[in-house]
Amino acid sequence: MASITSKAPNHKTNQLSVRERAGKKLSDFGKRWSDGSLGTKLSHFIFGAGNFYHGQYAKGLIFLLVQIGILALMIFCPSINGTPYGWKALRNLSLTHVTEGGDFDPLTGEFTSGSDCKLMVLFGFVTIAMIIIYFMVWNLNINSSYKADEEKKIGKKPATFKEDLRDLLDGKFHVLMLTPTCIAAAVFTILPTIFMIALAFTTYNSQDMNDLGTNLFHWNGLQNFRAVFTGEGSLGVEIKNRFLPVLGWTFIWAIFATVTCYFGGIILALLINKKGLKGKKIFRTIFIFTIAVPQFISLLAVRNLLGEYGPINSMLMDMGVTKAPIGFLGLKPTDSERLAKFMVILINMWVGIPYTMLMTSGILMNIPADLYEAARVDGSTTTKMFFKITLPYVIFITTPYLISSFIGNINSFNTIFLLTGGGPTYTGYQAGGTDLLVTWLYKVTIDQGSYNTGAVIGIFTFLITATITLVTYRRSRAYNEEDTFQ
Amino acid sequence: MSTTGNKKKYKSQSRNRRVSLGVTYTILTVLSIIWIIPLVWIVLSAFRCEYQPDGTFIGRVTSNFFPRAYGLKNFKDLFTATYYGVPGAFPRWMLNTLMIAVIDCIISTFLVLSVAYCMSKLKFKMRKPFMNISMIIGLFPGFMSMIAIYFLLKSIGLTGNPSHPEYSVIGLILAYSAGAGLGFQIAKGFFDVIPNALVESAKLDGCTSFKIFRRIILPLAKPIIIYQALMSFTGPWMDFIFAKVIIGADNAPYWTVSVGLYSLLFGTHPDTNLFTQFAAGCVIVAIPIVTLFMFLQQYYVEGVTAGAVKG
Hints:
The structure holds two protein chains of two kinds. Helix content of chain A is 67%, strand content 2%. Chain A is mainly alpha-helical. Chain A has a domain at 238-485: MetI-like fold. In chain A, the strands form two sheets. Chain A has a two-stranded antiparallel sheet. In chain A, strands 3-4 form a two-stranded antiparallel ribbon. In chain A, strand 3 (104-105) and strand 4 (110-111) form a beta hairpin. In chain A, helix 12 (236-272) runs parallel beside helix 16 and helix 18 runs antiparallel to helix 21 (451-473). The two termini of chain A are 28 Å apart. Chain B is mainly α. Chain B folds into two domains: 2-77, no CATH class; 92-310, Orthogonal Bundle (MetI-like fold). Helices cover 72% and strands 1% of the residues of chain B. Chain B contains 14 helices and two strands. Chain B has helices spanning 2-46, 73-80, 89-121, 127-138, 142-155, 167-178, 185-193, 196-204, 209-220, 222-238, 241-247, 257-266, 275-295, 297-310, and strands at residues 82-83, 86-87. A two-stranded antiparallel ribbon of chain B has the order 1-2. In chain B, strand 1 (82-83) and strand 2 form a beta hairpin. In chain B, helix 3 (89-121) packs antiparallel against helix 10 (222-238). Chain B starts with a helix and ends with a helix.
């Protein structure tokens, strides 16, 4: 038995199942209550009581202040912009009986334009987060007191506040280092993401809010997701008719953009690193130069260069290739969608190839030279060596990059937005011929204010990228052998 | 007999090689020209100084690639003109962006380094969950949460605040730098390569984790610090969507330079004759960024390569 487990990878043997862990938590909890000192028992109700009991006043005070602060927030419900936090925020989360924060008219039973449902949802989640934090601190404070009990039992003095602070620089250094990121990410990344996910289940849509006012909406379950198939709702027709084409084009775009830039970059790197070639540095610098120029400059330059009155069109007209200016980028509704799609992939190569070139150059130089020596002795040709040594080696090393650049291309906003703006457009629809899911998401939320539909598109995008990542990344060496690098 | 055969073979080989080198030169030169043309065109447009017969200045996109006359008028206009009711708007946008970039650079680099160090060299219970959560969060499109961040900042008065429009700059800095810590992967990959034995032996000598970080890790981490600083410093100069949404379309005095330049081309500005001024602005913005990149090229390449291999 022992021999079997010892063969298993190290990180698996330490892990208990969820059930076992929960059981252990519960028994720990019981133990703290039954074995703990009076202070520990009191800590279950008054934060920091145990610390006061053991003479750790500063620590106890911090715990107590957290408790008082959160409880005060819950009970007194301070409000911002007329929307409250606290228990009222939890009640408001239902979005049904809005009495706080808005101009609720008790006579008609309706609310007028003062209430702000998006703030209610937002503050509701903040309050839930506060409750979670409350219980986390509660657990921490009991733990801290119990630890002091244990230390006293074996005759050690409980840590003073100074020692605790010093430990933040050593044993608990990660707490000190991670706290800023955790707070910042919770407020500015996780909370907004959860908020937007929630909006997908509401009627928050500036298109059909006239009956409720501009800031009012309610929950409507899975209706927005159903609209993708049924086409009901104000944006339903748009999302039903354009979802599949946009999704399909997003995939085609991501595949072509990734593959063209990847192999183009490898070929360019091979050309530049060719033996005996002089001026390697000059060529490299020219291509790095194009990376260094901010994308909004280089892409807008290309857009204008190819524009209706731009030099390229006039040159083509002078040469007699075409009579009227060609709409390369689908900026007018009458322009060809296929040409616009081809052009964005082509121009994306211009943007992306130097980047891959830069990356693969380093890898190419690291290929063990004896591999080539051996192949040369065996009489291999250059072409054969490229396909049997160079390419497999580079692909093997850069697989993680290939995956992440595919996902990056699914979310590639700048290229499409700056080049075509999603065009050519179709009358009656937001999503144009070259719109990706992300640019469509942008148009639907920012331009049109259909926050719920935008959130649905965002969730679909997430599901796609998450599936790809889970399938590929979790199998990759980088993830599974992450510990071995340490 | 055999030696002459070898010589012949050698000769033809070296000729082949010269031909293939020649072909490579040709291809690379053509490619370089293709890659550089749009940028050259922008620079030429910035210096274009053409007038119509009736004396009006031509600021539009014109069909001639090379200008018929050169001058500095675009730059002069750019720095003195009033855009969107803001006198001296362009220098102001430049200063805004510089300030945002510097602060963002400091905060972001600090956050990234601290998280990367914890993930790479410290052992604690929440390590793996933290990494998984940060990966999942990273998969949501950034634009999805952008509008939520706007609502959030607005609710605490850090944007769209009628009495303090300048607060939206703080809001933008927060929006840029707050999530930075979750992008620790490249720096972590770099720290992973630093041998653990170094850390262990320092620990045996009684070094605290903080001391190890300051005395051992940070001095070794110079390349990755420079890479992170470069990325977070150049970010605000390149981004315009986030800046536009967070600062607000009607808050022109506090725009970043990219939002300003973009709106010279596509904004509601009545004068559409502004392409050459836009080009001049692009040149002004590109010069410092490109210079930085060129000087710190080596670190940039190192970071990019590390990121590609570690994923």
